[in-house]
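Posting for a labmate who doesn't have an account.
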Amino acid sequence: MTSTTGAAGATGTFCPYCGWPDDAEPFQVVSRHCTAAGSTVWTRCGCGSLQVRAVDERGARIVSRSRPADVPWSRAGE
């Protein structure tokens, strides 16, 4: 799923802003938090998009993503 407000999906997809594969380096780990189901990892893509990754027994997947700071907001993609 991709929209101007973010994208969610399994790791192995691509960043809708720069096209970089979600499971490829480089991405910067901002923070990690343990949860009952596994962990939540906040990362930043090379383009600046902030991502929330849920990590559990099924693997890692991006559950939320922001647009980079230099990408203007638009209702066109809704």
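Reply:
Got it, the structure tokens are right above this. The radius of gyration is 12 Å.
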